[in-house]
Amino acid sequence: MKFFGNPEVFRLTIIDIVLTAVFTLIAFFAVSPLCAAVVCAASVAVAAVNLIATCRRYRRISRLSEAVDRVLHHDEEINFADYTEGELAILQNELFKMTERLREQSESLKKDKIYLSELITDISHQLRTPLTSMNLIVSLLEKTSLNDEVRLSHTAELTKLLTRMDWLIDALLKMSKLDAGTAKMKKERIAVSALLDAALAPLAVLTDIRQQKVNVTCDRETAFTGDLRWQTEAVGNIIKNCIEHTGTADVIDICAHENAVFTEITVTDNGPGIDPADLPHLFDRFYKGKNSSETGIGVGLALARMIITSQNGTVSAENRREGGARFTIRYYKGVI
Question: Which stretch of DSSP H or E encloses residue 67?
Fold first, then answer.
């Protein structure tokens, strides 16, 4: 009775009964009672076969529906080998794609949750370290017995920690925008010379203090397509990393050239180089290498890679045979 409760099946059954009756009456009055009996028997047989086939099909659809429900709630698999005929084959194909997509989304969500948990842990650790130092400095500043020289020293250290936190929060906000795909980047023709000038300007004081020399080799015609503000941030972080890992009075060379495929910028230093164990993780978020400074956070290079790759670029790092490290940035003219 549940089968006949289906509106479609009920309508088809009524139509079969009506047609059987009509053709039987026509055969009875137009030909003979024997012919009417044959027509009636044939019509009933066809209707019965049709109902049996429909009943089997609906049962299989019902089982398929229950299997899909189990997949959605219990993560079970469907054996699609049982559904290989007609419209069921089409339904099977769509359901297979749906279940695979759901499984991929489920795995992706699990990975995102793990990543988010680790990210929050890393961020809290990075913020807790300067906050602890700041609380200690504030407690020292509260002492009335401090002389002006010590107080100024503590104040300078507090300012440095606040600047570090401000930079970290700003970098994390930029990374979150890039992760979410909400960062709006322009696509305009950028002269590499202008990019390098903008990237080096905030680092001039740092290079002067460390008595380092920066050599730039770049033609005025060398250019690429991108967002000047974002790419200045990326290239500046890479140059700053080289400055911080190079000794006093050392030299940093920056070269740029353009060909038919890409525009390349190389930043080379003559420092101690990168530890081989650090190379595979150098651009990982919050990764600090063996030779990193105490004030290093492990965000600058990760942010640089995210910005560069978001505008069809690549960045890599390697050690030179003659000593020192080399960072290679490439902005491709086509999709890679």
Answer: helix 33-74
Is 70 exceeded by the pLDDT of residue 110?
yes
Q: Choose among 161, 169, 168: nearest CA to 135.
A: 161
Q: What angle do CA 234, 235, 237 make, to 5 degrees?
A: 65
**pLDDT-derived band at 190, boundaries 50, 70, 90:** very high
Residue 24 vs residues 38, 45, 316: alpha-carbon distances, Å: 8, 13, 85
pLDDT band at residue 200 under the 50/70/90 scheme: very high
**DSSP secondary structure, 266-303, as one string:** EEEE-SS---TTTGGGTTSTT---TT--TT--S-HHHH
- Say how far apart CA 281 and CA 274 lie, in whole Å: 11
Measure CA 216 to chain center.
34
How large is the C-alpha radius of gyration of the chain? Answer: 36
Residue of 215, 167, 225, 160 lying closest to 192 (CA atoms): 225
| Beta-strand relationship, 262-269 and 325-332 | antiparallel
Query: pLDDT value at position 147?
Result: 85
DSSP for 97-144 reads HHHHHHHHHHHHHHHHHHHHHHHHHHHHHHHHHHHHHHHHHHHHHT-T
Which of 40-44, 59-63, 223-227, 319-323 is most confident? 223-227
Which helix (H) or strand (E) is 207 found in, with range?
A: helix 204-209
Residue with tokens 């956070």: 297
Nearest to 245 by CA among 296, 312, 299, 311: 296
Three-state DSSP class for 327? strand
pLDDT, tens digit, 9 for 90 and up, residues 204-254: 988 988 899 999 999 989 999 999 999 999 999 999 989 988 888 789 999
Residue 132 scores a pLDDT above 90: no
| Integer angstrom CA distances of residue 122 from 30, 132, 179, 285, 290 | 91, 15, 16, 9, 18
**252 beta partners:** 214, 269
- DSSP code for 245: T
